């Protein structure tokens, strides 16, 4: 209970009057007027449990926070003596029904009653020992044996600061400058591999996944023996094995437990003229037994990241069967449009796609040269493949972190077909069979601000793909025609204005007198 804090809402910041916030310092506590959460307990159904009691000593100068850990006894006769059912201590996602396991799940849970008892009961389990592994929440600093996992980053200037904690599920990438000299390179901890692996994330040791050596001209070589620590040493007026980059990869369970931590290194060398080096650091998180899927926000979309898209397969309505595109033109489950080429030739641009980035209005295009020998049907299919790609998605994720099994988090793409015909074209089409070819694809993404006004999250609510066609008239013999083909994306914010009382600008519904501005018009 000493680590529980329901009023800790801001990541890496002190919440006002939250006496259990670990981010608050003694100076912050001295400004508090009260403790918004004076007592923190665990399960109220337990017969006996620990309680964290918080209060303020206003008589002290300056005022201080008082913390006490007491034993609390439940006066109820009907209480839980021990929590020996470990599966109930954390939420685990239920097995999702699919076309493959549906019969098995129906046989197991389809009767009027079924048993969920574990294979064995242990009545001697101590409640305090039932949860030995630390379970993280989003944004909480990743703890190590001595403090927390550090991800150096620039603070005020470009110089590295080692006080930046790595937050759970917060993918980060930083670059900073480190002061160094040839004579002291062996004594600077931050340029040694040992500094980044000589700690354990609670019960998990940090292993070395790979080591890449970068020469002074920029050439990189992957070393075979990555399990050997290479410490900085001075050799022929060079200090080698200097850490230029570290990339952490953390594997976790759905309950928030870290089960594996690996680090990849880039090592380099400096000469006696070097006064500083630039270091790069990165950390990523992957859930166990899942394929790493790049997210575009958590939860709302981040401007500049790709719009995520996917398909609904034949197995629907089984939600676990939602399948993402993993083809050549859409490798990372993204909404894409035609990519312009330097030649502006549509036939040369076939297969070239660029991802749609959230918040970025985009336009691209090419030109198509048509002769009198071209046939309508093959040309129409070629242009459709050019505009939409080989596999245009059916759904778009409403949030940047929408999961495949959450069907309601996916917005269907609405398709609209329009025709760019003049009155003369309509008369021409009625007299003889016409050829309608697609010449443009316009994608409109409507999004809204979702959640708190303090930290609104971008949410996609509607996606429309409009394909415009034009009439292809029969060309005289020996003549050619050039047709422009375009693709565009427009993002529209349809957020409603804030309700009165929620920091909105005040509105006045009143009419001015007709002669208010007299003698001016």
UniProtKB/TrEMBL annotation:
Residues 135-288, 297-493 form the Tectonic-1-3 domain. Pfam families: DUF1619_N, TCTN_DUF1619. The keyword Glycoprotein applies. GO terms for cellular component: MKS complex. Residues 2-102 form the Tectonic-1-3 N-terminal domain. It comes from the Eukaryota. GO terms for biological process: cilium assembly; protein localization to ciliary transition zone. Keywords: Cilium biogenesis/degradation, Glycoprotein, Signal. InterPro entries: TCTN1-3, TCTN1-3_dom, TCTN1-3_N. Belongs to the tectonic family. Part of the tectonic-like complex (also named B9 complex). This is TECT1 protein. It comes from Ceuthmochares aereus. The gene is Tctn1.
């Amino acid at each position: 209970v000493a680590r529980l804090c329901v009023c800790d809402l801001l990541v890496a910041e002190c919440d006002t009057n939250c006496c259990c916030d670990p981010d608050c310092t003694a100076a912050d506590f001295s400004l508090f007027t009260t403790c918004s959460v004076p007592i923190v307990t665990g399960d109220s159904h337990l017969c006996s449990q620990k309680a964290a009691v918080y209060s303020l000593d206003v008589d002290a100068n300056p005022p201080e926070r008082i913390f006490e850990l007491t034993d609390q006894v439940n006066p109820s006769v009907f209480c839980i003596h021990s929590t020996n059912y470990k599966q109930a201590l954390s939420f685990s996602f239920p097995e999702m029904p699919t076309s493959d396991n549906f019969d098995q799940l129906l046989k197991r849970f389809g009767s009027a009653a079924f048993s969920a008892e574990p294979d064995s009961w242990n009545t001697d389990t101590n409640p305090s020992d039932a949860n030995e592994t630390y379970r993280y929440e989003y944004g909480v600093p990743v703890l190590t044996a001595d403090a927390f996992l550090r991800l150096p980053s620039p603070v005020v200037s470009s110089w590295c600061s080692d006080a930046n904690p790595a937050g759970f599920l917060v993918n980060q990438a930083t670059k900073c400058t480190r002061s160094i000299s040839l004579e002291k390179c062996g004594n600077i901890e931050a340029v040694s591999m040992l500094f980044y692996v000589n700690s354990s994330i609670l019960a998990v040791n940090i292993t070395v996944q790979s080591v890449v050596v970068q020469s002074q001209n920029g050439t990189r070589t992957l070393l075979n023996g990555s399990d050997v620590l290479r410490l900085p040493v001075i050799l022929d007026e060079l200090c080698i094995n200097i850490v230029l980059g570290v990339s952490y990869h953390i594997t976790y369970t759905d309950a928030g437990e870290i089960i594996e931590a690996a680090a990849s290194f880039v090592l380099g060398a400096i000469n006696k003229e070097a006064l500083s080096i630039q270091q790069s650091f990165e950390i990523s998180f992957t859930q166990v037994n899942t394929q790493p899927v790049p997210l575009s926000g958590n939860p709302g979309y981040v401007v500049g990241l790709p719009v995520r898209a996917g398909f609904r397969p034949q197995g629907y309505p089984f939600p676990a069967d939602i399948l993402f595109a993993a083809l050549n033109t859409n490798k990372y489950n993204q909404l894409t449009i035609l990519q312009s080429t330097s030649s502006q030739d549509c036939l040369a641009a076939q297969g070239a796609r660029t991802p749609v980035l959230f918040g970025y209005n985009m336009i691209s295009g090419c030109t198509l040269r048509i002769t009198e020998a071209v046939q309508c049907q093959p040309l129409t299919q070629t242009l459709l493949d050019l505009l939409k790609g080989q596999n245009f998605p059916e759904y778009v994720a409403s949030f940047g972190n929408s999961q495949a099994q959450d069907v309601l988090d996916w917005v269907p793409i609405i398709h609209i077909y329009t025709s760019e015909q003049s009155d003369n074209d309509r008369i021409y089409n009625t007299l003889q069979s016409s050829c309608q070819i697609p010449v443009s694809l316009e994608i409109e993404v409507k999004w809204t601000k979702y959640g708190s006004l303090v930290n609104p999250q971008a949410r996609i609510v509607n996606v429309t793909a409009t394909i415009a066609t034009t009439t292809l008239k029969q060309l005289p013999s020996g003549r050619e025609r050039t047709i422009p083909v375009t693709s565009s994306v427009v993002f529209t914010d349809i957020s409603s204005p804030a309700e009165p009382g929620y920091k909105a600008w005040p509105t006045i519904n009143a009419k001015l007198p007709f002669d208010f501005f007299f003698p001016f018009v």
